[in-house]
Structures are given as structure tokens and as C-alpha cells.
Design goal:
CATH topology: TIM Barrel
Bound molecules: 2-phosphoglycolic acid
CATH class: Alpha Beta
Shape: globular
Number of strands: 8
CATH superfamily: Aldolase class I
Number of domains: 1
Length: about 250
Amino acid sequence: MRRFLIAGNWKMNLSRTTCVSLAQAIAAGCPQGGRTEVAVFPPAVYLEAVLAAGTGLVVGAQTVSEYADGAYTGEISCAMLRDLGAASVILGHSERRNVLGETNAQVNRKTLAALAAGLQPIVCVGELLEQRQAGQTDQVVLEQCTGSLAELTAEQMLQTVIAYEPVWAIGTGQVATPAQAEAVHATIRQWLEGRFSPEVAGQVRILYGGSVKPDNASELLAQPNIDGALVGGASLKADSFLGIVAAAEALVQA
Ligand code: PGA
């Protein structure tokens, strides 16, 4: 059975002190012996402080360079993240694709670099509102999967998490209905089956992201193909993030 993953994407928020206290509060509030994997993604400059707090949470970065080392001013490599002790990295978030112009080819190179370095990639895909309205959701999402996950072996795919985040639902309070999300998740899983195998498709976790809150998490996570959540706004407060973790745990215990 796939284990739920609840991931908090803190984006460009918080400070050194508030990152550490938030991570500590989340770790303290996670159910003892829980089955849900909980991960936080602080700004890169605060990774070391959060890791040093030794909370036991999975800690990752919000992006990484596709290059190994060299003259890439301002960039941070996979080896540097590993050196800090980071375990995971979010790749191809819609804000990086749509605001900063990241392409599928770039997301693919970053994914392969992360896997080679032993970081778990969380590869984000998702359609714009106009693409959904034009009936292009499946096509857009599968193009992103095909491009961003090109060249991965089955073994590498098993180390990778996919996050479906409809762009119109991110930070807007307009969450996809459980049926809308489940339909796209099922399409992605079917794609995984064709591209890899039924075994791989059965094991890869597909997270939903976009205005996930404690009061809508349970219905979303109850869908058969939704294996967790990538949470932005609601991950910045321990109470609301823990409410989502609790919703996942309740489904595991049920
Ligand atoms: P949101 O962001 O939960 O604030 O909608 C989700 C994300 O961007 O990963």
C-alpha cells in the first residue's frame, strides 16, 4: 500500500527563527507512531537551521540546479543539498514553470540530477485555467509528465513522487473537487502503467496540491489515486498543516 506523504512547501516565507519553530511545532504535533510521511520544504538558506533542529521530519529544497558545479552564479547543486542533509527536492513547481520560465526539459535534467545524487524528486505538473476551460487538461499534464520524466528508468521512477497541482487552484482558495483531482490522478497513473509497468504505476505516489486545507483534505485524500498533499499556504501554520496530517492518519486508521 502507498504511504501518504504530506509535504509543506513554505515558498519564500518565514525567517530562520520561524522556520525552526514551525518545524519543531509540526514534529511535536505529528501523531506518535503515525503512518503518514511528513516533509517540509523551507527556503534554501534556512535548510541547515531546520535540519540542525533534528525534528525527524523529511526536509527538502524547493528547487535545485540542473548542473553539477561550476560557473552558475546563485545556483545550488544537488551535491550541496545532500551535503546539508536534505533528502528531497520539489521540481517544476508551477511558480517556477510559469513565473520563472522553467521548461519540461529543464525539469527533466533537474530530476535526473536529483536522482543521481540520491535526492527524492517531487515533480510538479498541472494545467492553467484556460487550458482546463479548453478541455486540454489531460494533454497538458501528460505532456509535462512525458517531458519532465523522460529517460527515467523504472527504478528511478519508483524513487520519484509526482504532484498534480492545477495552477488555478494554487494559492487561490479554489480547490479542485475530489472528482476533478481524482480524474487527473487516475490519468497520470494510467500513463505510468504504459510508460513503465503496472507494478511501477501501483507504487508511485501522486500528491494533490492547490488550496489543500484541513477542512477539504479528508475528501481529497480519500480518493483512490490521491496519495498525499503538497501544501502551500496551510503549511505555514502548524495547526492547519497538522490538521491535514491528521486527516491522512484518520484515513490510514479507518
Ligand atoms: P497552496 O499552494 O496550498 O497555497 O494553494 C500549493 C503549492 O503551491 O504547492
